[in-house]
Amino acid sequence: MDIEKQWPRGQRAAFVANFIRDQIVSGELAASTRINERVLTEQLGVSRTPLREAFKILESEGLLTIEPNRGAMVTAISPQEVELAIEVLIALESVAAERACKHATDAQIDEIQALHDEMVGAWKAGALMRYFHINQTIHQKIVDCAANPTLSRLYMAESQRIRRFRYAGNQISDRWARAVYEHEQILDALRHRQGALLREVLRSHHLSGWRTTRAVLEGEIRL
Amino acid sequence: MDIEKQWPRGQRAAFVANFIRDQIVSGELAASTRINERVLTEQLGVSRTPLREAFKILESEGLLTIEPNRGAMVTAISPQEVELAIEVLIALESVAAERACKHATDAQIDEIQALHDEMVGAWKAGALMRYFHINQTIHQKIVDCAANPTLSRLYMAESQRIRRFRYAGNQISDRWARAVYEHEQILDALRHRQGALLREVLRSHHLSGWRTTRAVLEGEIRL
DNA sequence: CGTTGCCACATTGCATGCAATGTGGCTCGG
DNA sequence: CCGAGCCACATTGCATGCAATGTGGCAACG
C-alpha cells in the first residue's frame, strides 16, 4: 500500500493498526497467518517502531497473538469462541436497547433509517459486502444511541474481533432476506421506543443469524 | 522499583504495562498525571521502546491517554462515566450469573467460598485494602465460572479501569457490613445454582455499592 | 507593569543498529 | 536411508541517536 506516503507524526502506530485491523476483520489476512515485520515496513513505508506499537494495540484487542521471538500472527478463534462472544454481544446490545429507546434523538433514528434504506438497496443490488458493512454500522449506531461510551467501545471492539466469522452466514440468501425483515422490526421498535421489544428482537436476530453462520462454518450448508 | 533487575526478553512491555496498570488501578498514579518516559525508564531499568509499547497497550485499555508530542497521562474518568461503566459490568455479570450456575465446578465454588471466608477475616481485622482486593477477586472468579473467555476478559479490563473509583465507597463501615452480607447471598445463590436469583442479587449488590461510592465521590458523606 | 515574541531546553516520535533467538538445511554418523 | 547435531541466515527484541515538537522563561516593547 501507500509506499512513500507519510502519515502524520504521532499517529503512525494508529494508522498502521487500522490498516492491519481492516485486513484481519475483513478476512484478507487469514487466521494463524504469520506477519513479517520487514515486509510490512516496506509495504507501509514506516519503520519497525510504530509497526511494533501497532502490534501491541492489536494484541490487546485480541486480533493478534505475539509469541516472543517468533512474531505476530492473526489470532485463531474457534466457532465455539465466536458463539460465546456473540452471547456477550447480545448482552451488550440488550443494555443498549433499553437505553437507546430512552436517549436516541430523532436525528439519530433518522440516520439509522437512512442506513437501513441504503442497506435494502445493497440487498436488492446483490452487493453482499456493502450490505454486510452497512448492517454492522447499523448495529453499532443503535448501540451508540445508548449514550454509553463504555458500551460503544466494547461493542465495537468485540464485534470487529469476530467480524470475519459472521460474514459467512450472510451468504445464504434466505438468511439475507430474513435479516432485512428483522431489521425492519428493529427499526420499528426503536422508533416507537419500545425498549423491551427492541431488546428481544435484537436478541433473536443475533441468535438466528448465528445459527445460520454456524451451519455455514461447520459445512452443513454448501454455498 | 527493580532497577538493575532485568526482565526476560520478549516480556518487558508486558511487565512494564502491569507495573503501570497496578499504579493506576490502585490510585497511586492520580488521574491526569503526566508520565515522563525518561523517569520511568530509569525507575524500571528498561529502554524507551518497551516502555512506549506498554503505553500503547494501556491506552487501548483506556487507562492512559496519549497526546502526540505531549506524551501519556492517566485517563481522567468522570463519576458519570463510572456509572455507565458499572451498568455495563452489571450486564456482563448478569450473563455470567446464569452461565456460572450451569458451568461452575464444585471446586470453583469451594475456592470462592474460601476467598469469601478470607474476605470476612479481612473485614473483621479492619484490613480495608485486603478486603477490597479479595472482593474484586471473588467477582472475577464468579465471572470466570461462566466459562466464557470473552466475558472474563472484558469484565477484568473494565473492572480494573474503574477500580480506583470504587475503592472510595468501601470506606463506609455500614456499606462494608452490608456488602459482606450481600456476598453471602451471592454465594448461596451460586451454591444452589439459582441463576436468576444470582443475577438479581449481583445486580442489586452493585447498584447499592455504587450508590454509596457515588455519595462518597460527590462529597455527600464525610469519611 | 503587562504582553508578546523568541530562544534554549526538555520531551516525544521514529529510524536504525546490534544482540539474541528461531529456523531450515546440511553434514556426518549410525 | 534416516536422524541428530550444527551452522548460516532470517527474524525479532531492545537500546539508542536524531529530528520534530512542545514548553517555560526571558527580553524587548508598548
Automatic annotation (TrEMBL), chains A, B:
It comes from the Bacteria. SUPFAM superfamilies: GntR ligand-binding domain-like (SSF48008), Winged helix' DNA-binding domain (SSF46785). Keywords: DNA-binding, Transcription, Transcription regulation. Residues 10-77 form the HTH gntR-type domain. Pfam families: FCD, GntR. One of its GO terms (molecular function) is DNA binding. This is Transcriptional regulator, GntR family.
